[in-house]
Amino acid sequence: MKKLALGSLALTALAGTSFAAFSLTDDITLRLTGDVGVVYDDNIQLGDGTVNPKVDDVIFNFKPGLTLEFGKKGLAVFNFSENFTRYADTANINTDLASLSFRSTLDSGKTTASVNAGFSQLNANTPTATGGVSGVPGLLRRDNTTAGGNVKFTISEKSNFGVGVTYDKTDYKLATLADSQITTVPITYFQQISGKLYLTPSIRYRKTQLSAPATSDFSDYYYSVGLDGEFDPKLSGNLSVGLNKRQAQVGKNESSVGLDANLTWKYTPKTTFGFNLKNDFGASSVGASQKTLSLGANASTELATKVTGSANVNYSSTRYAAAREDKNWRFGFSVNWALYDYFSVSAGYDYTDNSSTLGGANSYSDNKFTITGTVRY
């Protein structure tokens, strides 16, 4: 805890740094941003305590960045940041990782459209990553590239038609893992049934292309019907239920019930709850087919003037082709204090527990305590 206290002092000093916004032209604004954080993690490499030891450390994060806004109403926005991560005792896994993104929107009245793109260098703590040797803990390094867009056309006063496309590419830095390219095309018809609530029959096509050591690519279809919009003045969001079908290039085809829901309940003007549910196919980092059921809930409330509290709990069950199932529980809470319009401080706690039928190095628990200063100017 002494390390955490010293880190907090460093956080306070750095977070006080002045950041400013600049109007480059009448329509282009440059904003400088920054996050400074200190994390105490009691299991940085997700050891199970038997096969792999648990190693704790204090982690310092400094994430300067910039935002370019085009147009008075944010017609297009470009973001760039660089995250510098330093471990107090485990310096061999220090990292400097970049992230950039772009998004743009258009609304002509009868047609709405958006486009987005991004690139992120990522690390994830894992019990089996270093050198690609199973059972040896480390950091799993990957690059993620995304691009996409969607457009919604007005057909009549009560109906709309929407189509989109997304592209997601993941490049792992370990040759033993399967890189992936995933292209998704959803097609949805919106029929107004009351007020701001729409019935949404939909078809979603997804193509997953994998490199070695994967032995098969996958084509997925999700045929569904759902609801989208405001269920009542306090409850809004979308939900769908349908049939998931997976066609494998090599191996057996599969099908399952498909679920997808994201709901927001504004309980009071100061308190909001969120709920999510998903049942879908996926692919593991070695390219094997998997099925994942996930559900979660979150809450946010105003505790006092400029002070917000939040909490979340999430559960997922992932079934792998090789007779393996992982059950993962996560929960956490945080408090955010907006001292000024441009500067806030937050503190939080997160807990993760992963239980695998394979046992050994694949089962672990992790506790994190975090303090972060955020500047948006």
* Strand-pairing-aware structural class: mainly beta
Helix share, percent: under 10%
Reading off the top of the CATH hierarchy, the class is best stated as: Mainly Beta
From the structure provided, what is the oligomeric state, counting identical versus distinct chains?
single chain
Mean pLDDT comes to 89
Supply Rg: 23 Å
For the biggest sheet, the summary is: 20 strands, antiparallel
Strand percent estimate: over 45%
Given as residue ranges, the uncertain stretches (5+ residues, pLDDT < 50) are 1-19, 130-136
Shape: globular
Looking at the structure, the CATH topology is Maltoporin, Chain A
Outline the structure in words.
Helix content is 4%, strand content 69%. The protein has 377 residues and is mainly beta. The chain has one domain (2-376): Maltoporin, Chain A (Beta Barrel), CATH 2.40.170. A hairpin with a 3-residue loop joins strand 17 and strand 18. The protein is globular, with a radius of gyration of 23 Å. It starts with a helix and ends with a strand. Residues 1-19 and 130-136 have low confidence and may be disordered.
